[in-house]
């Protein structure tokens, strides 16, 4: 079956690239012919009036620091960007660019079925109707969602009608957030499935075959990956690494991280290097959903900080809480703004896998059944 997959895949974000690669790889294993629909959204995030004065100052500071650092190291970021494009081109089939109505009309006739893939493509803060396949008639073409993320624990009430209108003709609907499943199922009056992120559709052996397992860093190290800058979390990393006599290796993402973490040599790492760093680390410390997911998949000891405070309007902590609960490793979650990493017994990954095996198998069955 020819399948058009709509998701983010051009962002300079490791999780974004790897989830797109994972879904396409798994669909090929099932015998299908998937292609990523080459639509790039505007991504002009609206300014939110709920930000405090301090949040506005910090956001501005990170914006300035990011642009300054990138202008000073254009060669590094050009190399990184090229490695991201090469990864997609090497492992994925991609359609021609989709820009106007004529392009969307061509896409409609090119595939037997369509899938809304994962990542936060359904986040209500930046809804784009094309990521709900609004240009496809669900009575003539099969429309399926596989683990799109809304980012939040629940949909805002004022957005529910928008979602129900866009999803009413879907053949099958699933979400990555467990907390929002019942809410959306009630609104749609049809089943909504909670399924795993696409990266879990491939096992440890398959990921290592894709990435190669040659160790890149000789000495024992702690690998960090933070999507936001938090000086308290960084202090915790330094204390923990010093106590365990570990080198600190990481991939700074934005703003002040570039100047504080001082690990320029790793910034241009390719997406599959990200897997290698996690697999060979003694510990991973992160606030990222996908770094957490790969730590579990690759059986690396890890800790994950809450990225946001409980009161933050941007709070997307629920998606990490959900996956930790599935694998029964919720003790690895550290409260936002903590300055210390606890000393815990190592995770028993055999037991963790058993806890989530039913969930992952049910997710695979959902995808297969939806395409039959």
Class of secondary structure makeup: alpha/beta
Instruction: Detail the poorly predicted runs.
Output: none
State the total count of DSSP E strands: 11
Main sheet: strand order = 8-7-9-10-11
Quaternary structure state of the chains depicted? single chain
Elements, N to C (H/E): EHEHHHEEHEHEHEHEHHEHEHEH
End-to-end distance, in Å?
Answer: 9 Å
Question: Features of this protein?
Answer:
single chain, 372 residues, alpha/beta, 5-stranded parallel β-sheet, 4-stranded parallel β-sheet, 42% helix, 11% strand
Structural account:
This protein is of the alpha/beta class and 372 residues long. It is 42% helix and 11% strand. It has helices at residues 14-29, 53-72, 74-91, 101-108, 160-167, 178-188, 204-211, 231-243, 257-260, 271-280, 289-297, 317-326, 349-371, and strands at residues 2-6, 33-36, 113-116, 142-145, 173-175, 192-194, 221-225, 247-250, 283-286, 302-305, 333-334. A five-stranded parallel β-sheet has the order 8-7-9-10-11, with helices on both faces. A four-stranded parallel β-sheet has the order 2-1-3-4, with helices on one face. Strands 5-6 form a two-stranded parallel sheet. Helix 12 (317-326) links the parallel strand 10 (302-305) and strand 11 (333-334). It is globular. The mean pLDDT is 89.
List the SSEs and their pairings.
Layout: E1 2-6, H1 14-29, E2 33-36, H2 53-72, H3 74-91, H4 101-108, E3 113-116, E4 142-145, H5 160-167, E5 173-175, H6 178-188, E6 192-194, H7 204-211, E7 221-225, H8 231-243, E8 247-250, H9 257-260, H10 271-280, E9 283-286, H11 289-297, E10 302-305, H12 317-326, E11 333-334, H13 349-371
Parallel strand pairs: 1-2, 1-3, 3-4, 5-6, 7-8, 7-9, 9-10, 10-11
